Amino acid sequence: MNEDRNPAASAGTLKLGELTVRRMGFGAMRVTTDGSDIWGPPADPRTAKLLLHRALELGINFFDTADSYGPHASESFIAETLYPYPDGLVIGTKGGLVRPGRRRWDPDGRPEHLRRALDGSLKRLRLERIDLYQLHAPDPQVPFADSVGALVEAQRAGKIRHLGLSNVNLNQLEAARRIAPIASVQNQYNLENRKSEDVLKACERLGVAFIPWYPLGDGAALNSRRVKQVAKALSAPRAQVALAWLLAHSPVMLPIPGTASIRHLEENTSAATLRIPPEDLAALN
Questions:
Q1: pLDDT higher than 70, residue 238
Q2: What mean pLDDT, rounded, does the chain reach?
Q3: What is the DSSP letter of 158?
Q4: Which residues are the active-site residues?
Q5: CB within 8 A of 52, min separation 6: which ones?
Q6: Which pLDDT score, from 0 to 100, does residue 1 have?
Q7: Could you tell me what percent of the chain has a pLDDT over 70?
Q8: φ, ψ at 130 (rounded to 5°)
Q9: If you classify domain 7-284 with CATH, what class do you get?
């Protein structure tokens, strides 16, 4: 294996149901125009297309997106750029958040909305079935079982291969599993924010993939003294240390760092080749 040409393969693999994906994925949220508001199509479509193709060249075979990114722009652009999709590429998307304005992310877990959202994602991604479809967030105004149940019905209809959850607590994960098998959980998690540690441990016990969003945090972790020390000792960028720590921290971890920069994409993906010595891992833990 040539790590320079195919660094994502160095992360190893995990299972999403019966699908095998490499443990270094790509988050396609930031291919949209405004990196802070995630609103509109790419400002530089040519670079954005090169970015998606470069992710594939680096060995990434799991792309994460959502209907709310843009909104709709991320899904549409993935299809415009990569369809017909290469063999082995797994695209996960999400529904259940709506964007009435560029700074609004409102939950909508009504079954009728989720059915429309799913059909919209299928159309934009040019798919008959989505490999991984995640409820983007529980809606406090809708019984959680109703939201999950709507997706189970769509799965039985052949529109979804595997179900996932996002932004859930341990009780919600357990409640969903009483309704249907769950292939993944996508919660915020990074060196500085480990509030979902109990959910991560449950995923390890159950063999459920854990997809940490915001894997680099808000900069606090990268600027911490311990990360700086480890990065200096390993002659590695701090972002690589943070991502390599995630990979080492749990065998079910599937980081999906996102960026609009090809240079940052290459740097992030190369974190899969970084091996942190045990004593440095202990310092970071």
A1: yes
A2: 95
A3: T
A4: 69
A5: 28, 31, 63, 77, 78, 81, 82
A6: 45
A7: 98
A8: -95, 130
A9: alpha beta
